[in-house]
Amino acid sequence: xxxxxxxxxxxxxxxxxxxxxxxxxxxxxxxxxxxxxxxxxxxxxxxxxxxxxxxxxxxxxxxxxxxxxxxxxxxxxxxxxxxxxxxxxxxxxxxxxxxxxxxxxxxxxxxxxxxxxxxxxxxxxxxxxxxxxxxxxxxxxxxxxxxxxxxxxxxxxxxxxxxxxxxxxxxxxxxxxxxxxxxxxxxxxxxxxxxxxxxxxxxxxxxxxxxxxxxxxxxxxxxxxxxxxxxxxxxxxxxxxxxxxxxxxxxxxxxxxxxxxxxxxxxxxxxxxxxxxxxxxxxxxxxxxxxxxxxxxxxxxxxxxxxxxxxxxxxxxxxxxxxxxxxxxxxxxxxxxxxxxxxxxxxxxxxxxxxx
Length: 356
Description:
Layout: E1 3-9, E2 15-20, H1 28-35, H2 46-59, H3 64-67, E3 84-86, H4 87-94, E4 112-115, H5 120-128, H6 130-134, E5 140-141, H7 144-153, E6 157-166, E7 172-181, E8 183-185, E9 189-191, H8 208-216, E10 220-223, H9 227-232, E11 239-240, E12 249-252, H10 256-268, H11 280-288, H12 291-305, H13 308-311, H14 317-331
Parallel strand pairs: 4-7
Antiparallel strand pairs: 1-2, 3-4, 5-6, 6-7, 8-9, 10-12, 11-12
Helix pairs in contact: 1-2, 4-8, 4-10, 8-10, 10-14, 12-14
């Protein structure tokens, strides 16, 4: 017999529940194939299965009211919504080595989407009705905190809560899902508007170049006396060498999951022009317009090649050599930033992760 499970209880007493066991009335692998996405994508990861269904629904947003009238009473959108993935899910789509059995495979907790701002609310409403069309595995809802966040952002960004996995006992787990519009604005701003037109070419991701920029924009600083903590947690490899910075502070770069993802891109893709290659000219053009982003990206990439021993924990000697050679090749073609900063040149008004 089905039983109700409370996913979340809001401060005002509102409960968001779901019937167990969770259901799915679509085949994620069939949808992956219909989207033209690679067969190596490991759909054993719950978020990746969900991503396939979401991408298919988005590209068919203009006809969902005809296909699933019980879930969508009105037309979701007049045209397809070119929803794009970034983050770990995008890496799994673009890089075979990041999937099960691959050198740089890792578990992901959720998916990160970005859509055109003009279709942001349409995409948000689509997600809130996914479970009615495709099954309860794809349930999302907006809590009071989510609604407050959305009101403050004025259509620039949306937040909702969604199922992101199932425990061994068959109980669903949830996470907060951020939906970005037009650009990724974290430590730095990465514009992706041009990528919406290339959604099929980029396999429904933001593309290799923007993916690298979005990963390598991660940076923050800490008091110098935190070095002992970093060593204790074996994260001293994240300390970036930049002699111009305040002497009582240290700069911290990408965490392990991002380093792995960036390495997967370089392991699986050559530097050059054409399909499935990292276009250095495109990256240079973007970074020439934003010296602060250029400095952060180049420092993070240099930190990878300066610490090859860290990479050997995951990759063979020849794979490390491939990654290092390709990073070096790319760096030679990226702009050199001569301006020197002794204090943060990045956006500090974002949450700083805890080292653990």
